[in-house]
Amino acid sequence: MIFNNLISKLSTNLLLAVIGVLPSGDKDA
């Protein structure tokens, strides 16, 4: 399903963004 793919993509991007922000704290998504 397209929604499943979209949610998966968004979740991955969000996870990567959080992981990228936590250590530095200067990168806002």
General description of the model:
It is built from one helix and no strands. It has one helix at 2-24. With 29 residues, the chain is mainly alpha-helical.
Helices and strands: which structural class?
mainly alpha
H and E order: H
| Largest sheet data | none
Q: Return residue spans where pLDDT drops below 50 for at least 5 consecutive residues.
A: none
Mean pLDDT: 81
How many E-type strands? 0
Describe the global form: rod-shaped
- End-to-end distance: 26 Å
Strand-residue proportion: under 5%
Radius of gyration: 11 Å
Distinct helical segment count = 1
Helix content: over 70%
List the topology elements:
Blueprint: H1 2-24
What's the short version?
With 29 residues, the chain is an all-alpha fold. It contains 1 helix and no strands.
Summarize this structure as a short list of keywords or feature phrases.
single chain; 29 residues; mainly alpha; 1 helix; rod-shaped
